[in-house]
Amino acid sequence: MIEKVRKNGTFEEICFGQKQDPCQSVFRKAMSTFHALKKSRQDSGLEDVNVGVTLHDHIAGMPTARKTGSPTPDSLWLKSDNAWLQEIDASTLAPVGVCTQQKLHPELKGTLAAAHMRTDPVTGDYFNYNLEFGRQATYRFFKVSASTGKTEILATVRGIRAAYLHSFIITEKYLVFCIYSAYYAIGGVKILWTKNIVDAIDYDPNEKNKWLVIDRHHSKGLVAIFESDPFFAFHCVNAWDEPSATEEGKTDITLDISTYENLDILKRFWYENMKATSPSALNYAGPEHAGRARPSLHRYRLPAIGTSTIPVPSASAKASKAAELVFAAPKALGVELPTFNPTLACKPSRYIYGVTDRDNSVFFDGLAKFDTQTQTSKLWIRHAQSPGEPIFVADPDGKGEGEGMEDAGVVLSVVLDGKAGRSYLLCLDAGSFEEVGRVEMEGVVGFGFHGHFVPQKRV
């Protein structure tokens, strides 16, 4: 894809945040141009597909994206916020196939999905959603069985505006989707004009967020709807079920999420706002503006969830329950690109690791380990060092759970050394958060969003 842009000097496909030429977007209908007939996406070069925000390990039950053959244990999958999936070789990272969610199920014909698909830590079942634009938006929430490879539509919901959802959360019993007050303008039609997602999203600070709870196991579909004050978020962290504290026989869900008070974070990452010498960067930095685009970790409880199906039309009505805010950590302790010990997925977890924005630069300027019990943080901050997403790797000799064991492991991050002009792989002890080693690189590793640790035996 990069070579295609270099050759043509432009990137005309719809993407997440790249600005388009206003003459092309506003006045294109009055311009005459010639376009060669394009092949379908499946028939085009695999390198041309703009899929690469998240990386997922081999997914049991997932059909191959290759034109022929079957998935292998050496397959990794790339995802973005669209409905495309790209299969790559784990050893060479070369693309080997591409497909849409419609290959999983014919009803998954929408164009958007979550970049962060979820897998059950026990069964390996894979979950995501599919968003179809139309006179009213259609959300389809689905599961791919690891044992059979069959895809099941768990719930279909209409009557809620189409919103941008980068991630969601699962528990042992449920899927939880927060429908933020960040909506696609004109029902998604604006994307065709702006040619990017960021400029096509509107934010309504007076519209409450809706939380949809969907049954995973008993074909009950939508079983609860909650409301909370509006916020925007990219990343959920972890969630778990507990017996209800207020109603016997029902379930409470506790979850952690990294939130923003508006959409300023989307505009902060325009190039001109990240360049330290740019005047517009000061709109998002310094004592007066630093809080505009900084995250805050929130913990919510969704109380007393039953087992009865909610009729889908009621999804557009006012929710009968409120999501309870357990705590909101100060922005000074906020983290983005959050992660935790993956052996505790769908179980109570205490520590959250992420990148921090302490207003020391115009980009992420440190790493943090946030303790949800004490609401304090351990920090790794070095002058002119810009870290990427932290990856938690559990100690293979530890159980990875229980008091004193949750943080048994290491945290890996690719860091840009702004003084040396090259990158290095940093390794921190996950418990003490002190450096235990680093691997220096000869050049710069470009910043991405998300990584994934794959054991050596897999590659």
User: What's the mean pLDDT score?
Assistant: 82
Low-confidence stretches: 21-44
Helix content: under 10%
Q: Biggest sheet, open or closed, and with what strands and sense? A: 5 strands, mixed
Q: What Rg is obtained from the alpha carbons, in whole angstroms?
A: 22 Å
Structural class: mainly beta
Q: How large is the share of residues in beta strands?
A: 35-45%
User: Which overall shape is indicated by the principal axes computed on the Cα atoms?
Assistant: globular
Helical region count?
6
Order of strands, main sheet, comes to 9-10-13-14-18
User: Separation of termini?
Assistant: 25 Å
Number of extended strands: 28
What does this protein look like?
There is one protein chain. The protein is mostly beta strands and 459 residues long. The chain has six helices and 28 strands. A five-stranded mixed beta sheet has the order 9-10-13-14-18, with no helix packed on it. The protein is globular. The protein starts with a helix and ends in a 19-residue tail after the last strand. The relative contact order is 0.09.
Secondary structure elements and pairings:
Elements: H1 2-8, H2 22-26, E1 54-56, E2 75-79, E3 84-89, E4 95-100, E5 118-119, E6 126-132, E7 138-144, E8 151-158, E9 169-170, E10 174-179, E11 182-184, H3 190-194, E12 201-203, E13 209-215, E14 222-228, E15 232-243, E16 251-260, H4 264-268, H5 271-274, H6 286-289, E17 296-305, E18 321-322, E19 324-328, E20 336-339, E21 351-356, E22 366-371, E23 376-380, E24 385-387, E25 391-394, E26 409-417, E27 422-429, E28 435-440
